[in-house]
Amino acid sequence: MSHTHRILTGDTPTGNLHIGHWVGSVRRRVELQETHDCYFLIANLHAYTTRADAPQDVHRDSIEVARDALAMGIDPEKAAIFLQSEVPALSELTYLFAMLLPFNRVMRNPTLKDELTVKGLADNYSFGFPLYTVGQTADILAFRAHSVPVGEDQVPHLELTREVARRFNKTYCGVPDKALDEDHESLGGVFPIPVADVGKIGRLVGTDGQNKMSKSLDNTIHVIDSAKQVKQKIGKIYTGQDSRQPTDPGIIDPDENPLFQYLDVFVHDEAMKADIRDRYERGDNIGDGEVKMLVADAINELLEPMRERRRQYEDDAVVLKVLKSGTARAIAATEQTLDMVKEVAGTGFFARTLTLN
Ligand code: TRP
Questions:
Q1: What is the 270 CA–ligand 1 centroid distance (Å)?
Q2: Confidence band (pLDDT; 50, 70, 90) for 1?
Q3: Which residue has a Cα nearest atom 13 of ligand 1?
Q4: If I label 254, which of 120, 199, 281, 321 is the partner at 20 to 30 A Cα–Cα?
């Protein structure tokens, strides 16, 4: 298949993937890999913004994320899944792009500001922390990606990326000041101006029934959870003060109950869903227990093939082999961009070929 529309996206490795990742991003990637030239990055260098003192953990988490992504259906024959730290062009472009961005512009990024607040870093963050946002522009532009499937929180990084691309094209490729974004490539710009492809279903609520599903809150369901663990976790979901027993009378709004987000996302039988909702609303002999059972079964149905696939990747050597071939593809793509960049930016003197051993 020949695809001209390139897609790049990535994650900072934080450990095993959970069904919140599936709903928020991986599911979409599994679709996109069928029709697009896809690159999926494991942002292990970005992980050093907060974990520079835990290199072995980051190393292990990088492999774990790859293993789970493969289990979830990322197909290494179709998409390239690769390690940020093993693609030199990404760091090289970060250096150059940092020169094109006013320092104050980088620091104005709302997602960056949020992270510094949430992580309680105040004035104690590394120089590399804000630099990671510039690194992310390099991750994207190194592939001359056209679109970047991400969550809402990443949109400011995409805006920064678009600014870098425009500035580069204008400064080094003679693209006129007033050029429209979509004309940059045809006007001789090295970079297409990438767009953020923001997922509709933002975030799955966690099994605490309250917060976003997230490792740090211990409210997750992982691909590696057994069928029994899934049942237990769903069984414990707190459904609010209105937790319903089959015998409870009265009208209840299902949208107040976090279980119904799970029902919407994981159960595909629309008629059955409508019936459950209707009975629940009216208090027609249905409690949370019945909904929980349906949800747990549906999640197990989704996870079963993933558990199965995960077994093929149990051995680190098998995962590393996939990562190596993905990284080789990423190197080939980004070296090509780097050649184009160096030629116009005046930094190119010699040709080079990179190989992995
Ligand atoms: N910042 C992203 C996150 O933490 C990870 C990331 C790094 C990324 N480089 C990227 C996402 C490039 C999209 C494109 O989730």
A1: 34
A2: very low
A3: 9
A4: 199
High-pLDDT (> 70) share of the chain, %: 96
Mean predicted confidence (pLDDT) in 128-154: 96
CA-CA distance, 36 to 28, in Å (whole number)?
12
pLDDT at 178: 95
- The pLDDT tens digits for 299-325 are 999 999 999 999 999 999 999 999 999
Q: Give the model's pLDDT for residue 242.
A: 58
Closest atom of ligand 1 to 46 CA is 7
- The CB of 9 under 6 Å from ligand 1? The reply is yes
pLDDT band at 243 (very low <50, low <70, confident <90, very high): low
The string of DSSP codes covering 324-348 is HHHHHHHHHHHHHHHHHHHHHHT--
If phi over 0 gives left and psi between -120 and 50 gives alpha, with beta otherwise, what is residue 176? beta
Residue 2 has pLDDT above 60, yes or no: no
Position 182 scores a pLDDT of 96
HSE, CB side, 13 Å, CA atoms: give it for residue 169. Answer: 28
Burial degree of 9 (CB within 10 A; 0-12, 13-18, 19+): buried
Query: What is the Cα–Cα distance from 17 to 338, expressed in whole angstroms?
Result: 32
> Is any atom of ligand 1 closer than 6 Å to the C-beta of 41?
yes
Instruction: Give me the CATH code for the 6-204+315-345 domain, please.
Output: 3.40.50.620
Q: Where does the chain hold its CATH 3.40.50.620 domain(s)?
A: 6-204+315-345
Residue 12 CA to ligand 1 center (angstroms) comes to 6
CATH architecture of 225-310: Orthogonal Bundle (1.10)
Q: Is the CB of 194 under 6 A from ligand 1?
A: no
Whose CA is closest to atom 9 on ligand 1? 136
Average pLDDT, the chain: 93
Determine which residue's CA is closest to atom 11 belonging to ligand 1: 10
Residue closest by Cα to atom 3 of ligand 1? 11
Give yes or no for residue 43 CB within 6 A of ligand 1. Answer: yes
Query: CATH 1.10.240.10 occupies which residues in the chain?
Result: 225-310
How many angstroms separate the alpha carbon of residue 47 from the centre of ligand 1? Answer: 10
150 lines ligand 1 (CB under 6 A): yes
